[in-house]
Amino acid sequence: MKKKVILGLLAVFVIAGAVGAFSSGNKKGETTAAPPASGQASVTTTTAGAPDQTTPQPATTAAPKTTAAPTTTEEKTTEAKEIFKNLELKDSGWYLANDKWLMYYVVLHNPNEKTVVELPTFRITARDANGALLGTDDMTISIVYPGQDFVFGTQAFAVDEMPSRVEFEIREIKSDYKLKDISAVKEFLPLEVVNVAVRSGNLLGEIKNPNDYSLGTAVIVAIMKNADGDIIAIENTYVNDIQADGLTPFSTSVWLKEEPASIECFANKWP
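^ thats the sequence. predicted structure below, dont judge the formating
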């Protein structure tokens, strides 16, 4: 009987020791590093996954910024700009009608390649032999296309003696609105005057319009000279409804002291 009691107590002690040993051990999957020896540096071990926040990470470099190229529109605008040159006085002439009225003509040329000039102005000034002013006037015409001429002539003003000289000055273009790029307007081919003659006191002719569109009005200027090359008449008139790609006839009365040896006749768009 005593042997059974002793054996039972021994079994209890064995079981209790085993349970204590199990509860004081690590959980499954965990390891504990042994404490470092004296003078040995501490080492932190990591497992695969997110980086340990105590470990410094290499800095990342941002991609360099790019700069946008200039727009195509800006480039085209810059390239299309040309340095404007004022109109040129290509030719001029004058005479006195009835010993009183100053009659004149001018030929204005546009030397630009891309710029259309609208409403340009020129000045006529008459002076005597001493340079004293006999009269002056400003005249504005319609439009001069690149590389083309505009011939205009009419009566200027009355003078009380024969001028010693008559000056023609093309005024400076001060307003940009008078200048247009050729791409912003319709293409315009110069008008011609054909079949010119003087009959029964009338200047006759036809306006040839090579453009594929009609025009509201054209101004006609005729310069007549005698056999010596002197101007004997400068006439102008305005003709409406200029037909597209065709001929438009006109007639205007003239008064001549002598028969002209030559007649030059010009037509230009107006206004």
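The chain is about 10% helix and 40% strand.
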